[in-house]
């Protein structure tokens, strides 16, 4: 028996990085997975590699109608919904003086509104079927100030507090739905690669991301996926409204 045997999971942004690693690990642990992503080409490929245990649904997490399609497709393919990983997110490397209102709104629409919509639709569906687990990808940027990425930091801070609010709401209502947030530091994924390339001094940035943590390296997507399996499984049945940090020791300072 796998740790997620026969559970049905929706993983947003599952075509790349942490979401893709989670989809692979979830299937190994016995889950059936809906990979949702705005990137159709990579999303289809990621789902195809997992055979009958996965499907792909094209999805912009910031668009409410898209969530309706994801819920329908999940029910149709696997007949239930137990786990939601609100993983899709993005940032723009701009500080408070550089960022425009349009860029601010765009980052929040995906990274915070997308998680809000996910929680809303998951609570609605899971309360009818006996419960479930929602795991929201925040960041250490949701715990500490990040002057170089203002909109990313505020949206991840919002994800942290949304998580606690949803957890307490579901507990109070007796829904048996848990909700937790995960807070990684730099993890070796295409997102960080893009951030390095877009920074004014990529060499300096590359050195920075590799040496910031006391453990003197970046994290791996699989290392985050282990935490996501734990929070999604019944092993964490008494864990809700909390924040789990995976940062090589950065926030211990
Ligand atoms: P990634 O860029 O490798 O993958 C993100 C995926 O989200 C991509 O497949 C992308 O197509 C998809 N996506 C983007 N906008 C979308 C939208 N509107 N709707 C649906 N899908 C969309 O990123 P990653 O590094 O794997 O990050 C995953 C999550 O972890 C993000 O929320 C990120 O903020 C968070 N995180 C990452 C790091 C890191 O260092 N990599 C650190 C802390 C937190």
Compact summary:
The chain is of the alpha/beta class and 253 residues long.
Could you list some keywords that capture this structure?
single chain, 253 residues, alpha/beta, 8 helices, globular, binds nicotinamide-adenine-dinucleotide
Helix/strand layout:
Elements: E1 8-12, H1 17-28, E2 32-37, H2 40-48, E3 54-58, H3 64-78, E4 83-86, H4 101-126, E5 132-137, H5 150-173, E6 177-184, H6 190-198, H7 202-211, H8 221-232, E7 243-246
Parallel strand pairs: 1-2, 1-4, 2-3, 4-5, 5-6, 6-7
Helix pairs in contact: 1-8, 3-4, 4-5, 6-7
Bound molecules: nicotinamide-adenine-dinucleotide.
Residues 12-13, 15-19, 37-39, 59-62, 87-90, 110, 137, 139, 184, 186-187, 189-192 line the site of nicotinamide-adenine-dinucleotide.
Description:
This protein has 253 residues and is α/β, with parallel strands linked by helices. The chain has one domain: Rossmann fold, CATH 3.40.50. Helix content is 46%, strand content 15%. The chain contains 8 helices and 7 strands. The protein has helices at 17-28, 40-48, 64-78, 101-126, 150-173, 190-198, 202-211, 221-232, and strands spanning 8-12, 32-37, 54-58, 83-86, 132-137, 177-184, 243-246. Strands 3-2-1-4-5-6-7 form a 7-stranded parallel beta sheet, sandwiched between helices. The radius of gyration is 17 Å and the shape is globular. It starts with 7 loop residues before the first strand and ends in a 7-residue tail after the last strand. The mean pLDDT is 98. Nicotinamide-adenine-dinucleotide is lined by residues 12-13, 15-19, 37-39, 59-62, 87-90, 110, 137, 139, 184, 186-187, 189-192.
